[in-house]
Amino acid sequence: MSVINIAPAKHHIEIDNNLLNEIVDVFYDKMLDDYAINRFFSGNPVLEQTKPLKKLLTSIFAGLTNPDQITALIDDYFMAAFGKPGMQRTHIASDFDFLLEIAGGKDTRVLIFLSDAHSHLLKLKPDDFHYDVVIRHLTNTLKELAVAEDLQGDILAVAESARNKVLGRG
Questions:
Q1: pTM exceeds cut of 0.85
Q2: In whole angstroms, what is the distance from residue 149 CA to residue 126 CA?
């Protein structure tokens, strides 16, 4: 398990909880409606998936910096949003990647996990294309909700700062 630092370095983001909840709800609807990325999500009810995300974002924007607490919140979100029923937590990116690596037929990238639950998402091999889709939906959500431009910039900076960690890169 690795530690993620996605809190803004310069300052805490001041955001109203009602606005944060509305952003998450609209954003999540866009992501679940997009065939390019909705396959990554579990079949859990949307409320069950968004509740831990809202808690995570509220904590980060309030300035939470304790790596263990952040990792626990990330783990809760990834299990709710991406974990599939009956799946075991594992640190293997693909069940057969090790065979290709042994045979010399493939360079398997080294994956760095945010939390144990993150491995469920990484098994589906998300990449920059998928993350760009997420950023596009977030940008469109912030504009649709007429979020102030400076706040949009802060939120997008936080989202972008998590790119490498979410994609399992160091």
A1: no
A2: 29
